[in-house]
Write a structure and sequence with these properties.
Layout: H1 2-13, E1 31-37, E2 40-45, H2 55-67, E3 74-79, H3 85-92
Parallel strand pairs: 2-3
Antiparallel strand pairs: 1-2
Helix pairs in contact: 1-2
């Protein structure tokens, strides 16, 4: 079941495009990992640039799309490899 949810989340976030490249964040490798435990999901995002100005919007969109997947109550987004990762993570996961 959780593998199906992981695939559903991957499909849901794959429609999010990097605003600079116009390519899916899944295809670009920004989505590093997706895990599901019950109705809780965790998505790890790693921007291609440690100063990427768009990662906050991408993370917010990923959280919304993941939480719209049937069977997911909450999605925790973890941004790694960004100069402001701690601040972004705190803001997105309030």
């Amino acid at each position: 079941m959780s593998e199906d949810l992981v695939n559903d989340i991957k499909d849901a976030v794959s429609v999010i495009n990097d605003p600079h490249m116009g390519v899916s964040i899944v295809e670009m490798g920004i989505v590093q990992n997706i895990t599901v435990d019950g109705d809780q999901a965790e998505i790890i995002l790693k921007p291609t640039n440690p100063g990427c100005m768009s990662i906050t919007r991408i993370a917010a969109d990923a959280k919304i799309r993941a939480e719209n997947v049937e069977g997911i109550e909450n999605a925790k987004i973890i941004v790694e490899g960004h100069a402001m990762a701690d601040s972004i993570n705190e803001m997105i996961n309030r």
